[in-house]
TrEMBL record:
Cell compartments where the protein resides: Cell membrane
Protein name stated in the entry: Multidrug efflux SMR transporter
Keyword check for Cell membrane: yes
PANTHER family found in the cross-reference section: GUANIDINIUM EXPORTER, SMR FAMILY PROTON-DEPENDENT DRUG EFFLUX TRANSPORTER SUGE
Family: Belongs to the drug/metabolite transporter (DMT) superfamily. Small multidrug resistance (SMR) (TC 2.A.7.1) family.
Bilayer-crossing regions: 27-50, 57-78, 84-103
Main location: membrane
InterPro entries in alphabetical order: EmrE-like, Small_drug/metabolite_transptr, Small_multidrug_res
Short name of one Pfam family: Multi_Drug_Res
UniProt keyword list: Cell membrane, Membrane, Transmembrane, Transmembrane helix, Transport
Membrane topology: Multi-pass membrane protein
């Protein structure tokens, strides 16, 4: 359950990052509200996950989920470039996340 909570926190992290782009610097009300709610939810779920996960592992995985999610959604939603070097770097992040999960207790 602790890992599920951490993944949910990471998904809210992706949601608020994308909402931040859509809010255009908090000029647009609805995306701005969505962004703030996503931030709060992300931190709440992260704090719940930290009750039973080590800080270093949880924080790295949380930010890794955000990084991977925002890159993927940036490509899909905002037509950001897909390059082999970007994909390789994302692969390194995925390997790092998997490694941290494997060595965590």
């Amino acid at each position: 359950m602790k890992w599920t909570i951490l993944v949910i926190a990471g998904l809210f992290e992706v949601a608020w990052a994308i909402g931040l782009k859509y809010s255009q610097g908090f000029i647009k009300l609805v995306p701005g509200i969505f962004t703030i709610v996503g931030m709060i939810a992300s931190f709440c779920f992260l704090s719940l996950a930290l009750k039973s996960l080590p800080l270093d592992t949880a924080y790295a995985i949380w930010t890794g989920i955000r990084t991977i999610g925002t890159v993927i959604l940036g490509i899909v939603l905002f037509k950001e470039p897909i390059t082999i070097i970007r994909l390789i770097c994302i692969g390194f992040i995925v390997v790092g996340i998997a490694g941290l999960k494997l060595v965590s207790h």
